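Q: Sequence in, structure out?
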Amino acid sequence: MRDLVEQFGPLWGSVLGIAQILGFAILLLLTLAFILLFDRKVWAAVMMRKGPNVVGPFGLFQSFADFLKFVFKEIVIPAAANKTVFVIAPILTLVLAFITWAVVPLAPGWVISDMNVGILYLLAISSLGVYGIIMGGWASNSKYPFLGALRSAAQMVSYEVSIGFVIVTVLLLVGSLNLTQIVNHQSAGLWDWHGFSFIGALLHGGSPIKIAMAFVTGIIMFMMMWIFFISALAETNRPPFDLPEAESELVAGYQVEYSATLYLLFMVGEYLNIVLMCAMISILFLGGWNLPWGEVTNPYIGFLVLYTKIWFVFFLFAMVKAFVPRYRYDQLMRIGWKVFLPTTLVAVAVVGANVTFFGG
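A: Exactly. Output:
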């Protein structure tokens, strides 16, 4: 927005900046509507069902019909609940999920705030998201929501640690906290993407030791991509790590007492975080808006490329939801603390050594 103010003046620059933010928000909401339908369609196809197919052609308007249903239903607040906190919790979850997108670049030059510490901003805001869930579970004044909220807090904190160390490995290679710079660092092609850099290690010249270290680093980054993917499932409470919402144990977890619009706010916030994780995987490991055969400088083509990658990663999310059985809670925590944490610590050490002694 600062650039718009400098270019068009305080008044029109502010108006254009607000219009830019509103357009971005509308794009996100429309994406959520169709990605939710896509999620249900994939799940249905795996189970050999049709899924939503009545409201609109091929069921395309199903998400909009569900939205209207939630909006027009009566909001019911339990008599024993803390009404103020009960209402604030889903609003906080939605607001935090939206403002996280402020630093995510969609194409060359297409970003609301291209700050140099974009990764730190993302980690800071996303870590606050757990407060909305805890507030919702506590304010309901019921045992099941409270247990679901505690589960979610422990789960999100546990997997944020491994996500943080995975991001550190990327930052070591790039040398910048700016998300646009991270994408530009992967502009040479598929062999230069962080998730597939082991291919580039065999193509680049140098001493045998340097080639070997680059190849090992590439393999580690490939592993980091999948650790980030699995941790993102746990961070966003997606199956098979949806223990905070396990209907067989906690009915619906922290959302038990919520209905109508307040429940919708929780759901929209959750799906915004899921799509954010898909975008982060695309930006950190899959070249962002760059094509497998080279750099993209046209913002419109770049946007279509990144948008396609986000949908592909979400397809993987949907497939995992469809056929992987739910973990027990002790298994979930064991993976986070006993497998992912030491693995990512070793990865940070190896990648850091490669960058220090061999230049990355």
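The mean pLDDT is 85.
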